[in-house]
Amino acid sequence: VPAIVVVGAVALLTVLEHGAQRRWLIDHEAASLARLAREAARTSMPESGSWQAVVDSLDARLDVRATVMARDGRVLADSRAVASQMENHASRAEMRGALAGRAGQDVRRSRTTGEEYLYLAVPMERDSAAVMRLAQPLQVVHHLSDSLTRLSAGAAAVALLVSVLVLTYIGGRFARRLAGLRLVARRIGLG
What we know:
It is built from four helices and five strands. By secondary structure, the protein is an alpha+beta fold. It is rod-shaped. The two termini are 41 Å apart. The model has no long low-confidence stretch (mean pLDDT 88).
């Protein structure tokens, strides 16, 4: 029974660690994406009144989905979808953050592409554009998180095995000592 408790505790810790590792990886990716988004918002200018060439260029250079939105949430340009066919983004968490004057971030499954993305939006006041949003699929985060979880589970299994071996060795030594004491007690009892 104690072994089952230990195995259960190790499994629980591995699951909890998986969540912590995923959050750390997402935070790390968000910081990188925020730097890119701020620079893109600072340097981007529409070409002939259109943002499409800008978002397409960002996607081609950075391999991120790029979106420019108006203050009312209308999508002005998107590098991986037709902007005019996209729904209004005013209620999105990252959009609300950017309109409040700070970087807004969210992780969710895209209704347009069906993939889970990390979205990061920053304020940008140029012409009709108010927000520059970059999005990155979380496939890399999933793969890294799964690898870290496997590594953590492997390390926990090795630690558990070493613990069992050490405890077996120590238990055996105590058992031999107790057997010796039992033998001495029996001899004393026999006279």
